[in-house]
Design a protein that fits this description.
Alpha-Beta Plaits; four-stranded antiparallel sheet; 12 helices
Length: about 300
């Protein structure tokens, strides 16, 4: 059994190197298939990152009157933090609110002069409420509209980017569809290439196969080398893609982080943390399709 297994594997490796040109062509097409699959993964990652980035900007700013004490506002903040929908509540004091106001209107001297003429800080403290999800603001606004809270609040504004999220989802959905179409196209080409590669290999080894038949070799012994060779094509192709992918991710990280206005988005770390799932599923799916194509080729051109 061990000797037969060794011979089968040796035959597969020998055929891989003997027909190197054909093997490289097959590997190249499979590389394009794996690249298209990883493009889908990248699109999904960027979509989730973009939506999360937009949702993080959705908040409610609650403006209190200047006569409301900080202790009272801190109590309101504590009640808000107890709501299950609330992710974070940032307290901005009157002094900080005044400083921000001056910074925002630094290019408007008329407004600053009017502020100076008042002689005192006319602004109240502010609470900036962030929800865990963009759809969780209902209970938050309901609490702020309660009589005991609305009496303290001068104004509140909701920074809502749900329209942007919907447009972003629509655009990325179209990109995913295009990437899926590209993947299916390369997958179909890969199947045809594998089918013809195995057919050519069978033709090249027709005399050896005939001798194997004469000396009593089983059908499995004859067919297994071609199936192992098909698996080799996929392993080599995926190895090439992985070798190119991680350097490419490192180059993309600064530009992607700049686009999302963040220090880092963890593009490379995402692939490193999920490499078993990402590459394992890809290898299993494409190899299974390739083996099916190889089996169909053998069934047609390698009859008993």
């Amino acid at each position: 059994m061990l000797i037969s297994t060794t011979r089968v594997i040796k035959f597969a490796f020998t055929d891989f190197w003997r027909n190197l040109g054909l093997s490289l062509m097959t590997v190249t097409i499979l590389v394009l298939t794996y690249v298209a699959l990883n493009l889908l993964v990248l699109v999904n990652f960027f979509t989730e990152t973009a939506i999360q980035s937009v949702e993080n900007r959705v908040d409610v700013s609650v403006y209190f009157g200047p006569d409301v004490s900080d202790d009272r506002i801190v109590g309101v903040r504590g009640n808000l933090m107890n709501l299950p929908e609330v992710k974070e509540v940032v307290f901005i004091s009157r002094a900080e609110a005044l400083e921000q106001f001056r910074a925002n209107h630094a290019d408007e001297p008329e407004i600053l002069e009017a502020l100076d003429e008042v002689g005192q800080n006319p602004l109240g403290a502010v609470l900036v409420v962030k929800a865990k999800d963009a759809t969780d603001f209902g209970p938050i606004l309901e609490y702020l509209q309660s009589p005991e809270i609305s009496a303290l609040v001068e104004d509140k504004t909701v920074e809502d980017h749900r329209g942007l999220v919907e447009r972003l989802t629509e655009i990325t959905g179209k990109i995913e569809t295009a990437a899926m179409g590209l993947t299916l196209m390369f997958a179909l080409i890969s199947l045809l290439i594998v089918f013809n590669t195995i057919r050519v290999a069978i033709y090249i080894h027709r005399e050896e196969i005939a001798i194997m038949r004469l000396v009593g070799a089983s059908s499995n012994f004859v067919r297994l080398p071609f199936l192992i060779e098909t698996v080799m094509y996929n392993v080599v192709a995926l190895a090439v893609v992985v070798a190119m992918l991680f350097p490419a991710l490192r180059l993309m990280e600064p530009s992607a982080a700049g686009f999302f206005a963040a220090e880092a988005i963890g593009l490379e770390s995402y692939f490193r943390m999920n490499w078993v799932k990402i590459f394992g599923y890809q290898l299993a799916a494409v190899t299974m399709l390739s083996v099916v194509a190889a089996w169909l080729s053998m069934r047609r051109y390698l009859r008993k």
